């Protein structure tokens, strides 16, 4: 089967009958032992003393003194070692020449609007960086950006937790780009991510934000030619984004030199500190200079991260913006089905929902391919992606889906973390995930940057206890799917 097929004319309108059987109620789970401690709620706190807290607040306040140093002449001033430009009349001049995208007028939730009211200029960033930020369409920092940018600029280690889609990438890329010395021909920042697609996406964000800087960004992952990476490293590189295995390979070969790399950023940190990746991360840290800054970011931090934090981070500043765990803009439903009814149920969903773009998760490579074939046979277009595909194909699917070439994408957990496609408003768990971290990250592929989204879970009899447990762990209600879903809850 071809992994790409085209939508038939009039896509979105369903084929096949409207089934009502997927609306059947799930059986109530039998009384079970008390749920285990909730991993999301075991977030590792920094155990800061009151005086440390005070120091941190002072550091933050330093960045909020914009008004104190503003002057009418537009001259450059030095604040805390970071160069700034006067920002009264001159800022308006350079801003008026930028190519700023039209504002996003869609509804946004408090997950991104509940800010302190800071502006990007408050952080005294290089003007060229501010230009990239505004041209990317960012008007003001999100809550996680407000918390992390000023602290990261001071050089402190950070352990940060914030909800999916609330802007963690820029929260670490902006300080990284600010701190790089463009005149110095050396790798100064490494950003580690768990998947190749996320590496491509993150390097693209760095390039866009750094569009007006002279910073050389390199992306390096498995599945690509090692020789090309070696050739690339003969040229200047300031910032490397990649997956741990390939970077470690290049470092061990002495081709990627990290002796001047003073900042290591670990995105999706809980995933990268799982047994699969942690040994590589620890080995990589061994190649960094003694004076280095480590930033850990994720939406989920199980207690297992604590050991790593205690060993490698020095007095980390802890940020936890997850007083509740789920995104405010996402409505969660379940449909109780038998395994053999799942495709029929999906067909009904396609016919009833207003899907802008959807991501449909299966629990195995085999099931991804089978489902994609079924969806195509039903007359809907879909792409599929999983880790066993050739990297070239993966890149093409990712690129084309992002550009809206197809409405539905069937995938494994390869796309669970970090992938940011603004047009996705519906996530379907064709197969229900086994743990609440995976559930949270999967459904977080919709509702990006505080927008609205819908998560629909197909639940079989075997899944009923997992559904119950995940609801408990996330303190979220997953409701039975109603016969009609109001478009206003996921399409505004
Ligand atoms: N300050 C901002 N203003 C407007 N949009 C923003 C801002 N910061 C980030 N965004 C946009 O929000 C979207 C989500 O950002 P990002 O991918 O960094 O989220 P995240 O917190 O890393 O999510 P995840 O946990 O899923 O990885 C992106 O499309 C990004 O361009
Ligand atoms: Mg992210």
From TrEMBL:
Motif Q motif mapped to chain: 118-146
Primary location class: cytoplasm
Reactions this protein catalyses: ATP + H2O = ADP + phosphate + H(+)
Residue ranges occupied by any Helicase C-terminal domain in the UniProt entry: 329-489
Region (Disordered) residue spans: 1-58
EC number(s) stated in the UniProt entry for this protein: 3.6.4.13
GO molecular function terms listed in the Swiss-Prot or TrEMBL record: ATP binding; hydrolase activity; RNA binding; RNA helicase activity
Positions with biased composition (Pro residues): 28-38
Entry's Gene Ontology cellular component terms: P-body
Family matches, as Pfam families: DEAD (PF00270), Helicase_C (PF00271)
Subcellular location: Cytoplasm, P-body
InterPro entries: DEAD/DEAH_box_helicase_dom, Helicase_ATP-bd, Helicase_C-like, P-loop_NTPase, RNA-helicase_DEAD-box_CS, RNA_helicase_DEAD_Q_motif
Domain Helicase ATP-binding as annotated: residue spans: 149-319
Alphabetic keyword roster: ATP-binding, Cytoplasm, Helicase, Hydrolase, Nucleotide-binding, RNA-binding
Domain DEAD-box RNA helicase Q: 118-146
Recorded family membership: Belongs to the DEAD box helicase family. DDX6/DHH1 subfamily.
Function: ATP-dependent RNA helicase involved in mRNA turnover, and more specifically in mRNA decapping.
UniProt protein name: RNA helicase
Protein's organism: Dendrobium nobile (Orchid)
């Amino acid at each position: 089967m071809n992994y790409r097929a085209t939508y038939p004319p009039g896509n979105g309108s369903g084929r096949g009958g409207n089934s009502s059987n997927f609306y059947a109620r799930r059986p109530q789970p039998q009384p079970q032992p008390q749920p285990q401690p909730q991993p999301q709620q075991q977030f590792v706190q920094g155990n800061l003393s009151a005086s440390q807290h005070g120091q941190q607040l002072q550091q933050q306040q330093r960045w909020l003194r914009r008004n104190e140093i503003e002057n009418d002449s537009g001259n450059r001033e030095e604040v805390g070692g970071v160069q700034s430009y006067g920002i009264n009349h001159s800022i308006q001049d350079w801003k008026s020449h930028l190519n700023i995208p039209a504002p996003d007028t869609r509804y946004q939730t408090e997950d991104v609007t509940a800010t302190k009211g800071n502006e990007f200029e408050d952080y005294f960033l290089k003007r060229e960086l501010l230009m990239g930020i505004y041209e990317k369409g960012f008007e003001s920092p999100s809550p996680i950006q407000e918390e992390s940018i000023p602290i990261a600029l001071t050089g402190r280690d950070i352990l940060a937790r914030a909800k999916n889609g609330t802007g963690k990438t820029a929260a670490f890329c902006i300080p990284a780009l600010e701190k790089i010395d463009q005149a110095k021909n050396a790798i100064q920042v490494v950003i580690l991510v768990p998947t190749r697609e996320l590496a491509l996406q993150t390097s693209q964000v760095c390039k866009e934000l750094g569009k007006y800087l002279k910073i050389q960004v390199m992306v390096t992952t498995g599945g690509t030619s090692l020789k090309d990476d070696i050739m690339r490293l003969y040229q200047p590189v300031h910032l490397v984004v990649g997956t741990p295995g390939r970077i470690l390979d290049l470092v061990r070969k002495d081709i990627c030199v990290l002796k001047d790399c003073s900042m290591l950023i670990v995105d999706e940190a809980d995933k990268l500190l799982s047994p699969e990746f942690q040994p590589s991360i620890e080995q990589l840290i061994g190649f960094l200079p003694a004076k280095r800054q480590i930033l850990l970011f994720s939406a989920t931090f199980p207690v297992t991260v604590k050991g790593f934090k205690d060993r490698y981070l020095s007095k980390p500043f802890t940020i936890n913006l997850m007083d509740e765990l789920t995104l405010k803009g996402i409505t969660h439903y379940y449909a109780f089905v038998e395994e053999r009814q799942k495709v029929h149920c999906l067909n009904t969903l396609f016919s009833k929902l207003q899907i802008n773009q959807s991501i449909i998760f299966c629990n195995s490579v085999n099931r991804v391919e089978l489902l994609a074939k079924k969806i195509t046979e039903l007359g809907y277009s879909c792409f599929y992606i999983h880790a066993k595909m050739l990297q070239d194909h993966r890149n093409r699917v990712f690129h084309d889906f992002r550009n809206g070439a197809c409405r539905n994408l069937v995938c494994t957990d390869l796309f669970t973390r970090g992938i940011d496609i603004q047009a996705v408003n519906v996530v379907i768990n064709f197969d229900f995930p086994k743990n609440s971290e995976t559930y949270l990250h999967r459904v977080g592929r919709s509702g990006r940057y505080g927008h609205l989204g819908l998560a629909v879970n197909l639940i079989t009899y075997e899944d009923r206890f997992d559904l119950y447990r995940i609801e408990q762990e996330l303190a979220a209600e997953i409701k039975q799917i109603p016969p009609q879903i109001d478009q206003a809850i996921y399409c505004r």
